[in-house]
Specification:
With about 400 residues, the chain is of the alpha/beta class. It is built from 13 helices and twelve strands. The chain has helices spanning about 5-10, 45-60, 95-100, 120-135, 155-160, 190, 200-205, 210, 260-265, 270-275, 320-330, 345-360, 375-385; strands at about 5, 25-35, 40, 70-75, 80, 100-105, 110, 135-145, 180, 225, 250, 290-295. It has a six-stranded mixed beta sheet with strand order 1-5-4-6-2-8. Strands 3-7 form a two-stranded parallel sheet. Strands 9-10 form a two-stranded antiparallel ribbon. β4 (about 70-75) and β5 (about 80) form a beta hairpin. α11 (about 320-330) crosses α12 (about 345-360) and α11 crosses α13 (about 375-385). The chain starts with a strand and ends with a helix.
């Protein structure tokens, strides 16, 4: 994810008290917007200036306390931080609607540039997944028009949302692939968890020139190329369906169905594989009565835990303490309310001891309360948390 902070794009300070209003309840998901006016594509170097102008329009023209959106996504796939994860947006129509969903706006027009390029769709997915992971929020992906009288986000994004808001076929953002910018505390396994079908080993192999030989040494700000999931091919064709596949099953489309919804009914089959097998291209439109070939289910690759990090020990500070805390939270040994921190402090030690009590085979011999995780316990915990072996 290429996240551009407010400081990086030169945002003005928001007005208080309204601009400091936080969300009053859990967000159900994300609502998508477009600009609703004419928009022409531009060089990426000019996108920040456009976002600054949009903020000025909202604050000086509309009288709002800040730019209205939670995040904005340019045609190059970069995600600009608007009000962010914690301050309530003002874009969804009224206070109740604003409180219920994040607002993510594509820099896309009602005229001029009206079709989102693949890089922008990837950026929208990046923003959605970031909101889910860090907000957090629920899984709903809706339109501004859902619950409010408006044409927003326009026909192209409406079709994309109704198709399940998929990443473009092939899973890449052009020749360079999807770009993820490393943040403090990230690990390759944690990054890979956000990209279904991609392992941390594949990310390391694609970025050895950036990371180096040690996959545990990540530096905040590094830009990693995320390879496409195996077997997710780019697909082509007019979207008329009827293509052949290696599987013998078929599915006849019913009114209201989407590719993602259909794929959910066939274990081991993704919507990308379904689109590829039937030569359905963006915006992934299917029609009632269309007969789709259902490809054979892909066999998932076995999960491989990330390497045990050097320097991870009680009472010491290490970036790897954060992913260890996330793993412990995922397994239920650390409360979700505990703040993540690179210090392997008392809360992390207590949670590690609880893990060892539940899995005494990984506790050091002769130690009744083992607060230090070892390489075997680290690997086992990650298999339980992320390998589907719970």
């Amino acid at each position: 994810m290429d996240l551009i902070s407010r400081e990086q794009w030169g945002a003005r300070a928001f007005r208080v008290p309204n601009g400091a209003t936080v969300y009053g309840r859990a967000r159900a998901g994300v609502k998508l917007h477009y600009l609703g006016s004419a928009y022409s594509d531009r060089a990426h170097s000019q996108c920040a200036a456009y976002v600054r102008a949009l903020q000025a329009s909202h604050m000086d023209g509309n009288g709002w306390s800040d730019i209205g959106y939670s995040f904005l996504v340019c045609t190059h796939g970069a995600v600009f931080e608007g009000r962010g994860l914690h301050r309530r947006n003002s874009a969804n129509g009224n206070a109740s609607l604003n409180d219920a969903h994040y607002a993510v706006c594509a820099l896309l027009g009602a005229s001029g540039l009206t079709e989102p390029p693949d890089a922008q769709l990837h950026g929208l997915r990046d923003a959605i997944e970031y909101c889910r992971r860090e907000g957090p929020c629920g899984n709903e992906i809706a339109r501004h028009a859902d619950g409010f009288a408006t044409a927003c986000p326009g026909p192209a994004l409406t079709a994309w949302v109704r198709a399940g808001a998929p990443r473009p076929a092939g899973g890449s953002r052009g020749p360079g692939g999807t770009v993820y910018v490393v943040r403090a505390g990230d690990t390759l396994s944690g990054i890979a968890a956000g990209y279904p079908g991609v392992s941390w080993e594949e990310i390391h192999a694609a970025n050895r020139s950036v990371i180096g030989a040690d996959p545990g040494r990540l530096t905040p700000g590094q830009r990693l190329t995320i390879p496409a999931p195996a077997g997710s091919g780019s697909g082509s064709g007019s979207g008329s369906g009827g293509g052949s596949s290696s599987g013998a099953r078929t599915h006849t489309v019913r009114s209201g169905e989407t590719l993602s919804g259909i794929a959910a009914g066939y274990a081991g089959v993704s919507w990308q594989q379904l689109a590829q097998a039937n030569r359905i291209a963006a915006p992934y439109t299917i029609r009632t009565g269309q007969v789709l070939a259902i490809p054979a289910a892909a066999q998932p690759a076995p999960y491989v835990p990330p390497p045990f990090p050097k320097g991870l020990r009680p009472g010491s500070a290490s970036p790897s303490a954060v992913p260890w805390q996330r793993c412990l939270k995922r397994l239920g040994f650390m409360p979700g309310s505990v703040a993540e921190h690179p210090n392997y402090g008392p809360a992390t030690q207590d949670a590690t001891a609880r893990f060892h009590n539940a899995h005494p085979q990984y506790r050091s011999a002769g130690v009744s309360r083992d607060v230090a995780v070892g390489s075997q316990g680290w690997a086992h915990a990650h298999r339980l948390a992320y390998g589907g072996n719970r």
